[in-house]
């Protein structure tokens, strides 16, 4: 359950990663300390930074650099990969096209999903069938993002092993039928700066309206020099999540809230870019298996007072319901 946190904790997860696939990882004192910190952060804020994650800082920077280069292109170039329903809602969307709670968001983006082949999930997956649309310019865009997605997927799996230990005492709760074939989403997002006295700018300052994420775990790679991400605490205060070079900002999503039976909350957050400079953020979302039916874990039901607080939800249905209402 979220508290009146005033800042977001920083967790060095290197000890967890070093032992993550060791059958005796739970007995390691370093792992136990990381797990304790993850549990505290998920209970109190639903947000935390990770360092010691093993993904090179040079790659984090290069991913943001090529994203800036794409968004700097003329609209006519960007629209070549325009998002369409036929592409499974993958591709580029212009500023104001993404909608949060009925209000246009002041950002542009490339939306990517794990590719879904025709018939892969039957009628459940029909909306999401398609292949990602990658720009030809910058030339190395697709190759770079493929590497980045692979590393983020592996990192997320390892963090979830730590969270699984925190919730149940076993590192394997979010593998197999729950997230052993995890779906993923990635949004490459550009937020225009506030207008200067003599220049054009966005019509409002809400880069992305208040929302929670859908799945298990989000990894946010944000520009190092612009503070724009804000997280709401229990009292309704908006707490800034300033960029810390070389880290990811992590937060938990709706599916983990259900699995934990509310022990962990998917915290409301928003983006307001008050800088005159353009801001890029690359958000990677690690999800359950697409067709998994998510319901509270028995261990979490016992720990949270023996009452089941949430009904089962199929992740793919939850995702599709959001996708179909998020675009104007």
TrEMBL record:
Record Gene3D superfamilies: B-lactam Antibiotic, Isopenicillin N Synthase, Chain
**Where in or outside the cell is it found?**
Cytoplasm, Cytosol
Q: Does the keyword Cytoplasm apply?
A: yes
In terms of InterPro entries, this protein maps to:
DIOX_N, IPNS-like_FE2OG_OXY, IPNS-like_sf, Iron_ascorbate_oxido_reductase, Oxoglu/Fe-dep_dioxygenase_dom
Query: Where primarily located?
Result: cytoplasm
Q: Which GO terms describe its molecular function?
A: 2-oxoglutarate-dependent dioxygenase activity; metal ion binding
- A Pfam family of the record is 2OG-FeII_Oxy
What reaction does this enzyme carry out catalytically?
L-homoarginine + 2-oxoglutarate + O2 = 6-hydroxy-L-homoarginine + succinate + CO2
Q: Which UniProt keywords apply?
A: Cytoplasm, Dioxygenase, Iron, Metal-binding, Oxidoreductase
Residue span(s) of domain Fe2OG dioxygenase: 181-288
UniProt key word Metal-binding = yes
GO cellular component terms, A-Z: cytosol
Q: Which family does it belong to?
A: Belongs to the iron/ascorbate-dependent oxidoreductase family.
State the name under which the record lists this protein.
Answer: Fe2OG dioxygenase domain-containing protein
| Organism encoding this protein | Lithocarpus litseifolius
């Amino acid at each position: 359950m979220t508290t009146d946190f005033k800042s977001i904790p920083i967790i060095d997860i290197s000890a967890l990663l070093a032992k993550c696939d060791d059958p005796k990882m739970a007995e390691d004192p370093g792992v136990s300390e990381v797990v304790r910190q993850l549990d505290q952060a998920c209970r109190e804020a639903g947000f935390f930074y990770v360092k010691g994650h093993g993904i090179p800082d040079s790659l984090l920077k290069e991913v943001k650099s090529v994203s800036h280069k794409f968004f700097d292109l003329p609209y006519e170039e960007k629209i070549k990969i325009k998002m369409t329903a036929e592409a499974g809602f993958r591709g580029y969307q212009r500023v104001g096209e993404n909608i949060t709670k009925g209000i246009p968001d002041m950002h542009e983006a490339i939306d990517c999903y794990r590719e879904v082949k025709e018939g892969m999930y039957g009628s459940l997956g029909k909306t999401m069938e398609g292949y990602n649309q990658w720009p030809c310019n910058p030339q190395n865009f697709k190759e770079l993002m493929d590497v980045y997605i692979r590393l983020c997927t592996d990192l997320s799996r390892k963090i979830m092993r730590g969270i699984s230990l925190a919730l149940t005492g076993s590192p394997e709760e979010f593998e197999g039928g729950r997230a052993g074939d995890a779906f993923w989403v990635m949004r490459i997002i550009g937020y225009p700066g506030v207008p200067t006295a003599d220049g054009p700018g966005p019509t409002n300052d809400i880069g992305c309206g208040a929302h929670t994420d859908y799945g298990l775990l989000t990894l946010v790679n944000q520009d190092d020099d612009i503070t724009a991400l804000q997280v709401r605490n229990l009292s309704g205060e908006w707490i800034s999540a300033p960029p810390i070079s070389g880290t990811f900002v992590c937060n938990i999503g709706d599916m983990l809230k259900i699995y934990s039976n509310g022990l962990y909350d998917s915290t409301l957050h928003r983006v307001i870019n008050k800088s005159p400079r353009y801001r890029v953020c690359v958000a990677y979302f690690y999800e359950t298996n697409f067709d998994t039916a998510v319901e509270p874990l028995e261990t979490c039901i016992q720990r949270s007072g023996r009452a089941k607080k949430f009904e089962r939800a199929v992740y793919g249905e939850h995702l599709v319901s959001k996708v179909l209402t998020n675009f104007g």
